[in-house]
Amino acid sequence: MKIMIFIEGTTFYTKPVLFLFSKYGYKPIGNAVEVINSLHGKGHDIFLCSYVRRSRYNFIKSVIDFYGIDYTEILCRGKAEKYSDIVERIRPDVLIEDDCKSIGGVKNCCINDVREDIRANIKSIIVPEFSGIDGIIIEIDGGNND
Q1: Where do runs of H (alpha helix) occur along the chain?
Q2: How many CA atoms are closer than 13 Å to the CA of 89, on its beta-carbon side?
């Protein structure tokens, strides 16, 4: 199963300004690291999508590696790319993102901009911004928390 998870606001709390320059500006929310590593350990492909652009890929990779997160690929947008472009390219089975409360709410969620024919095949899980992903393992694994 392909699982795409947004990083900032969904799995990491970002401290204003500091998060642009230092891995210490990123703090995992709840048990996000353990949840992601558990999913990856069960054989799921984990695609982590970041707010940062491709030009800052090495920075976000250093953050992910610093926290010991297991993943298949880290995704960053190119200059003219939208999040929905990435989703349409990856075509995940599950897309986990936050509710975009700080930028206007659910209407700004990535899933809304994905083409309908692709969106129909994606299980969209939207969590409250900065609340973490601790509860999603039940939804994905059907209640199996092993």
Answers
A1: 32-41, 57-66, 83-90, 116-119, 136-141
A2: 13
Residue 51 tokens, joined: 């707010």
User: What whole-number distance in Å separates Cα of residue 146 and Cα of residue 144?
Assistant: 6
Model confidence, pTM: 0.88
Contact by Cβ (8 Å): 40, 32: no
**Which residues make beta-bridge pairs with 127?**
98
* Sequence ranges of the domains in the chain: 2-141
pLDDT in tens, 78-118: 889 999 999 999 999 999 999 987 767 778 788 999 999 99
C-beta separation of 85 from 4 below 8 A: no
- Residue percentage of the chain with pLDDT more than 90: 64
User: In terms of CATH, what superfamily is 2-141?
Assistant: HAD superfamily/HAD-like (3.40.50.1000)
Question: What's at 73, amino acid-wise?
Answer: E
